[in-house]
Design goal:
Blueprint (H helix, E strand, L loop, with lengths): L26 H12 L5 H10 L1 H4 L3 H17 L5 H9 L4 H4 L6
Helix pairs in contact: 1-2
């Protein structure tokens, strides 16, 4: 039976030692890695506009909204001092006005 038991390796990367410009990959991968890298930092709110500016191209695709929804849930479950209104203001700036209307957290 040993041959039929999966043997997975656990790989852990410490993203905190990489500058944001060194994080490469698809838009989705970069956004996720940047959020994971900065989520517990004091200046996380200040980094959000730069991170969400990457989502501008992704938001034009149908799955882009699903990624965006997942990211919002993750952010609000880990950042205690951000209000929905503050988040909406931050995210509306890097996204175009026509896409910013999608971010209605009321």
């Amino acid at each position: 039976m040993k041959d039929y038991i999966p043997d997975f390796r656990y790989v852990l990367y410490d993203l905190s030692k990489y500058p944001d410009d060194d994080i490469k990959g698809t838009i989705t991968a970069r956004v996720v890695m940047l959020i994971l890298n900065h989520i517990f930092e004091q200046d996380f709110v200040e980094k959000l506009p730069g991170i969400f500016s990457l989502l501008k191209d992704l938001s034009e695709k149908e799955t882009g909204l699903q990624y965006f929804e997942s990211l919002i849930k993750y952010i609000f479950s880990n950042v205690e001092d951000m209000t929905p209104e503050q988040f909406q203001t931050i995210v509306s700036k890097p996204l175009s006005e026509d896409k910013g209307g999608v971010v209605d957290i009321s």
